[in-house]
Write a structure and sequence with these properties.
The chain has 141 residues and is of the alpha+beta class. It is 27% helix and 38% strand. It contains 3 helices and 7 strands, in the order H-E-E-H-E-E-E-E-E-H. Strands 1, 2, 3, 4, 5, 6 and 7 form a 7-stranded mixed β-sheet that branches. A hairpin with a 7-residue loop joins strand 5 and strand 6 (100-111). The chain is globular and about 45 Å long.
C-alpha cells in the first residue's frame, strides 16, 4: 500500500519499498510505485510518460539484466519531494567479463499527497552516467 512518508523512518521505509520494486526487475510491480500518468526523466533521454510507457521502457532494459541493486547513501524529503543519491549495481546477462557494474546516481521523486494515488510517484528525474552499463550491455549482445 502506497503512503506519503512524514518522518525520517517512513521515508526510509518508502525508499526501501521503491528500491525493492525496481530491483525485482518485475514490471508488474511498477503500478505499486507510479501513477498511471507518471512522467519520468532519465537524464538527457526523452521524457517517459505513463505507466504503460514505463513498463515498456523498463521491460526492454531489465530483460538484459541478471540483477540490479540500489544502495541508498542518504535521503531528504522536502514537501512532496524525495532527494536521494545512491549507488546502483548491475550484472548484465551474458556479459563475457561478468563485470559487476556500479554507478552513482541521484533521484528526485515527486509524490502525490492526496486522493487515490496518494504515495505514488507522479514525476521523477533520475541522473547517472550510464557509460559503464552501456559498455557491459554492448559486450553481452
Amino acid at each position: 500500500m502506497a503512503f506519503v512518508p512524514t518522518t525520517r523512518p517512513e521515508v526510509k521505509a518508502w525508499l526501501q519499498r521503491f528500491h525493492a520494486a525496481n530491483d525485482s526487475l518485475d514490471t508488474s510491480r511498477l503500478a505499486n510505485i507510479y501513477t498511471k500518468d507518471a512522467k519520468v526523466q532519465f537524464g538527457n533521454m526523452p521524457l517517459v510518460e505513463g505507466l504503460d510507457a514505463l513498463r515498456n521502457f523498463f521491460g526492454a532494459s531489465w530483460a538484459k539484466l541478471e540483477t540490479m541493486h540500489h544502495e541508498a547513501e542518504s535521503f531528504d524529503m522536502v514537501d512532496n519531494k524525495i532527494y536521494q543519491p545512491c549507488h546502483i549495481t548491475w550484472r548484465v546477462k551474458n556479459d563475457p567479463e561478468k563485470e559487476k557494474v556500479v554507478v552513482p546516481a541521484c533521484a528526485v521523486i515527486h509524490l502525490v499527497t492526496s486522493g487515490e494515488d496518494k504515495g505514488l510517484i507522479c514525476h521523477a528525474a533520475y541522473y547517472m552516467d550510464g557509460a559503464s552499463l552501456a559498455a557491459a550491455l554492448q559486450r553481452s549482445s
